[in-house]
Design goal:
This protein is α+β, with helices and mostly antiparallel strands. It has a single domain, classed as Gcn5-related N-acetyltransferase (GNAT) (Aminopeptidase), CATH 3.40.630.30. It has helices at 3-14, 24-29, 92-104, 118-128, and strands at residues 32-39, 49-58, 61-64, 70-73, 76-83, 112-114, 133-134, 140-143, 151-153, 156-158, 173-175. Strand 3 and strand 4 (70-73) form a beta hairpin. The radius of gyration is 16 Å and the shape is globular. It is an enzyme of class 2 (transferase). InterPro entries: Acyl_CoA_acyltransferase, Atat, GNAT_ATAT. One of its GO terms (cellular component) is cytoplasm. Its main location: cytoplasm.
Length: 178
Amino acid sequence: MTIIDELGKASAKAQHLPAPITSASRMQSNRHVMYILKDTSARPAGKGAIVGFLKVGYKKLFVLDDREAHNEVEPLCILDFYIHESLQRHGHGRELFQHMLQKERVEPHQLAIDRPSQKLLKFLNKHYNLETTVPQVNNFVIFEGFFAHQHQGHGGPRWPGWDHSTAPESQGGLTAPT
């Protein structure tokens, strides 16, 4: 079992899910990116400890706008987000989330969130003033302003910060704030 598998299990347990939604094998087979926050000063022997992770990826979705019109979009999606329970409410989640926003060059209201927990919704409201959702028939949550910066281009709507022409075939990468 890899550290990614362990993180996925911890996230599933914290969210009361029947099974993990993040695993090493899924990371290898999907074009998702996993941002990992590590405390380099933690023991043992200065190797550090993982504080948490944030998994994102682009997904083709059918979503309703505020007029209930159907739209096919491919936004960046929050797929899993976990900060170890003993380290929550210390700013680590915001640090990790902010790093992802900068690296992916997106604004919080441009994200679609897969089955967000109440904790995540409260986090987004507190730190990014995301409160008003646009009701959907799928498991994704989008917020007011989601459609404000949508670009119509070849192949359908695209979001700023994502170059679809150069997307890697299999990313499965790990990255962390520097």
